[in-house]
Write a structure and sequence with these properties.
It is a single chain. Helices cover 46% and strands 15% of the residues. It has 276 residues and is α/β, with parallel strands linked by helices. The protein has an eight-stranded mixed β-sheet with strand order 3-2-1-4-5-6-7-8, sandwiched between helices. It is globular and about 55 Å long.
């Protein structure tokens, strides 16, 4: 029988690093700490080794399709499948950024939504029975949803929304943002928030799609780690990275044959109702 394996994206620092730390303690298998930069990734592994934890490093840049394919092939060859996937890698422009909103919308949604979705497309065929997928979203997805028009909210909360429809809506947001017409069309004026709305809704759709295929006990949830002190928040958050890792790790280690939560948005280990 092949050894179990967990993959955490964007894990050389911050919440991803803390998720790896917790999984090394609580998951009965190998934990792959992944990062775009090999030097930073191997240093993160070395830091955890000093805590007597033993993650393994694999380079992964979710913005590089070939990099995603390489880790897929590595998992297939060395483990024959995948048991936990934590999609944590994300970017956010700082409030003081002078980049035009058109650029922020394009770049942020590309990494946080479209390329996270691509990771899922490439790696989902490897998911084994009882696999757990955690898409790290944000409370800002909830805030952004509340800032949308009633018409746009209704689309994002439709119980039968498809992945094609979701990608089309996010593409529309990016397109409208190029001419600064996104608010006029009913979208929130936050590139990060809209990208994470995509991640949250994507997770719900993925669970429905897996259930329709009859995939046995594969569970997908989106979650918010809370307001964590990381470089992304300029260390303004009120939670440590280890506190921020608690809900993602809870989702990653959900027990076998669980009825709920499946395909939900989780905050502080509780289901948050996703509604307009």
């Amino acid at each position: 029988m092949c050894k179990r394996v967990a993959v955490v994206t964007g894990a050389n620092k911050g919440i991803g690093f803390a998720i790896v730390r917790a999984l090394c303690t609580h998951f009965d298998g190998d934990v792959l700490l992944t990062a775009r930069n090999v030097e930073r990734g191997t240093k993160a592994v070395s830091d955890l080794e000093k805590e007597n934890l033993h993650p393994k490093f694999h380079q992964l840049d979710i913005d590089d399709h070939n990099s995603v394919v390489r880790i897929r092939d590595f998992l297939k060859e060395n483990y024959g499948g995948l048991d936990i996937l934590v999609n944590n890698a994300a970017i956010m422009y700082k409030p003081e950024s002078t980049a035009p909103f058109s650029e922020q919308a394009d770049v942020t949604t590309k990494t946080n939504f479209f390329n996270t979705l691509n990771v899922c497309h490439v790696l989902f065929p490897l998911l084994r029975t009882q696999a757990r997928v955690v898409n790290v979203s944000s409370l800002k997805s909830y805030t952004a949803l509340s800032m949308c028009s009633e018409e746009v909210k209704a689309k994002f909360t439709a119980p039968d929304i498809t992945m094609d429809e979701l990608t089309s809506i996010i593409q529309s947001f990016v397109r409208l943002a190029q001419d600064n017409k996104h608010q006029q069309a009913g979208f929130a004026d936050t590139a990060y928030g809209m990208s994470k709305v995509g991640v949250t809704v994507m997770s719900m759709i993925q669970q429905r799609e897996l259930d329709k295929k009859g995939c046995q006990d594969i569970v997908v949830n989106a979650c918010t780690p809370g307001y964590v002190a990381t470089d992304m928040t300029s260390y303004q958050g009120n939670l440590t990275i280890d506190q921020g890792a608690e809900t993602p790790v809870y989702c990653a280690l959900l027990p076998p044959n669980i009825d709920s939560p499946r395909g939900f948005f989780i905050s502080e280990k509780q289901v948050m109702e996703w509604k307009a």
